[in-house]
Specification:
about 90 residues, Aminopeptidase, about 30% helix
């Protein structure tokens, strides 16, 4: 699975692509220069249960760590991932 980031001035997303097909997307908006708000995660029905959502969340976390920014997990799925292992994400949680 390939994860592709599209980052613009005020918003962005990560796409999960499997064999040329979009498996999922996670969207975010910038809140200032050092914080992003994860708004929504969608996994296409044929890819549910395959860890696509988790891969997308981890791509956002990696991006945050590499760029020293914080994440506001507004998306319910992302929030659940963060809540399951708070210690793993405390460095990026806003």
């Amino acid at each position: 699975m390939d994860i592709i980031q599209n980052n613009k001035e005020q918003k962005g997303n990560f796409l999960a692509i499997e064999n040329g097909v979009q498996a999922g997307i996670i969207t975010y908006v910038w809140e200032g220069a050092n914080k992003i708000i994860v708004e929504h995660t969608v996994v296409e029905p044929q890819f549910e249960g395959k860890g696509v959502g988790k891969q997308l969340v981890m791509a956002v976390v990696k991006f945050a760590r590499e760029n020293k920014i914080k994440i506001v997990p507004l998306c319910s799925y992302t929030k659940r991932v963060f809540d399951k292992d708070p210690e793993a994400f405390k460095d990026v949680l806003a």
